[in-house]
Amino acid sequence: MAKRHSSLTLLSRDHHHGLSLALKLRQGTRALLSDGWTHDPVRQVRRVLRFAEEELAPHFAAEEEALFPFVRSRIPDLLPLVERLTGEHRVLEALLAQLVNAGVPPPPGLLERIGIQLELHIRAEERELFPACEAFGEALDEIGNTVAMVRSRETKRRHRALFAEASVLINVPTRAIFAALLDIERYGSWWPKTVVFIPTGTSRGVEGAGMDVTVHRRSIAFVLSEIQQDRFIEFLTLTGDSRGSMRWEVADARGGRMVRWELNIDLEGGRAMDAHLDLAQAAHEALGALAARVSVATTDAPGTPTDEGTS
Ligand SMILES: [Fe+2]
Ligand SMILES: [Fe+2]
Fold it and tell me: What does the pLDDT read at residue 224?
């Protein structure tokens, strides 16, 4: 990509990331498995939605609040182009909303369409809009700070509501911890009682199995998106006005097993959950007690459960 005016370098760097994702989406099963890319559609959806939330949305905001107003006031000839590009932002947002609402697996062709649309949009900005802006030289300096400020504000705003974590050391075999984590029907016995868990799907513990969770009268559906036995479990949530992921990772530690829980979720009115999330640490202590009971129940089986595969 061409060397850019300093006011456009952040946006151009975003474009570089966007193009690399767009290429993988466009290539489908021919895409190289580099940069942690995967051919598993569930994980692809997760990656795309994370990109949309953390990179694309702040990028669009920076363009629409800083760059496009500059072009409108300084380069009237480019008015139709700016209107077209703004329209393309809305098209991309609509395609991403379709992806959220459809759940997993995504409808055939949707990821590819997002890739094509994203690539065309970025190329139009890099080839048509940015060179025309750069012809304005010093005048372009004045928007550099606003681009950076809007982009950073939107990135922070999105990250703030999203994250909660808890860690607990449990001195039981890893398998007992996983048995407890996969026993969705019993979540109510260790998770704070304001939460109702209703398992969905027929089989437990396999990708695609799910649960409906009620938190503060808000219903969220979680789908088991990834499991590596004895290492981690990740649920994805894609319904309604929320999206995100919930992940447990188990690792050997001094004195037992360290269970680390991480919730990344974008809930409108996320503040209502804060008090509830304070209970997460206590919940995981209770998980430890449940896993210990599972462990006791299994010690009668021949041999002691081992912890292979946790390193
Ligand atoms: Fe754009
Ligand atoms: Fe852009």
Answer: 83
CA 122–ligand 2 middle distance (angstroms): 6
Distance CA 226, CA 38 (A): 12
Helices (H) and strands (E) in the chain, counts: 11, 7
* CA count, 13 A, side-chain hemisphere, 23: 13
| Dist. CA 208 → ligand 2 center (Å) | 34
pTM: 0.57
Q: Which parts of the chain sit beneath pLDDT 50?
A: 160, 193-194, 269-275, 300-311
What pLDDT sits at residue 196? 61
Q: Tell me, what's the pLDDT at 131? A: 95
Instruction: Show me where the domains of the chain are located.
Output: 6-159, 161-298
Ligand nearest to the CA of 68: 1
Q: Measured between alpha carbons, how far is 192 from 213 in angstroms, rounded to an integer?
A: 12
β-bridge mates for residue 212, sequence order: 198, 221
Pick the CATH number of 6-159 from 1.20.120, 2.60.120, 3.90.1720, 3.30.1050: 1.20.120
Q: Give residue 13's pLDDT.
A: 95
Q: How far is the CA of 86 from the centre of ligand 1 (A)?
A: 7
Q: Does this chain's domain 6-159 share its CATH topology with 161-298? A: no
For residue 256, the CA-to-ligand 2 centroid distance in Å is: 48
How far is ligand 2, taken at its centre, from the CA of residue 139, in Å?
20
Fold type of domain 161-298: Alpha-D-Glucose-1,6-Bisphosphate; Chain A, domain 4 (3.30.530)
The pLDDT of residue 242: 61
Residue 159: its pLDDT value, please?
58
User: For ligand 1, a single-atom ion, which residues have Cβ within 5 Å?
Assistant: 63
Distance 108 CA to ligand 2 centre (A): 26
Cα-to-centroid distance, 63 and ligand 1 (Å)? 6
Residue 59 C-alpha to ligand 2 middle, in angstroms? 6
> What is the number of the ligand closest to the CA of 126?
2
* DSSP class per residue in 137-164: GGGGGGGHHHHHHHHHHHHHHHHHTTEE
